[in-house]
Amino acid sequence: SAVISQKPSRDICQRGTSLTIQCQVDSQVTMMFWYRQQPGQSLTLIATANQGSEATYESGFVIDKFPISRPNLTFSTLTVSNMSPEDSSIYLCSIRTGGDSPLHFGNGTRLTVT
Amino acid sequence: AQKITQTQPGMFVQEKEAVTLDCTYDTSDQSYGLFWYKQPSSGEMIFLIYQGSYDEQNATEGRYSLNFQKARKSANLVISASQLGDSAMYFCAMREQNYGGSQGNLIFGKGTKLSVKP
Q1: For B56-70, how does the pLDDT look when each residue is reduced to its tens digit (9 = 90+)?
Q2: Any B CB within 8 A of A92 CB
């Protein structure tokens, strides 16, 4: 299966700053998603990263807060903008290779906002 | 209403015994997929097992098996011969055929924390 490299693995950031998370896949994939996992909670989809076009955001998530880039079929970034302590979460990149295939996840970025 | 329900926030099991983690789901689709993931304390999400709605046999992967009861809309995970390394969060998830605009997305339950006792 594809190898997904996500970085940084963790970061501690100050309120009001922004962090960009990178997701690199070792093969071309059609579907790439970004999830958030707040402390002690389940995974919630932020958006679908579309290659060459604007990301598709889920209810409750907006582009100004979570801008996403997908310049090609192997790479995507998620930025968490103007951070507050409520943004402290694990952010996970995932891919789907098609058919009934499961989602495969990167190792996640553990973000703490102080 | 929740689409994926995991009613056991935490479970304990003795090493080498079997354990069942419950999952019920709600969908009106005829075609859907059910997945189980393991999340150790390190935070990574590890895919364990998959069951398609049209699969007649229960899925198995090594020590993991999925007890699929379609009429009851349940997809319980059975772990046989538990090991200390099985201690983790376990998430049940579903893919509906046409989930909004995010085809291919998974909907996750709240998870069950499994602790294996030596």
Answers
A1: 899 999 999 999 999
A2: yes
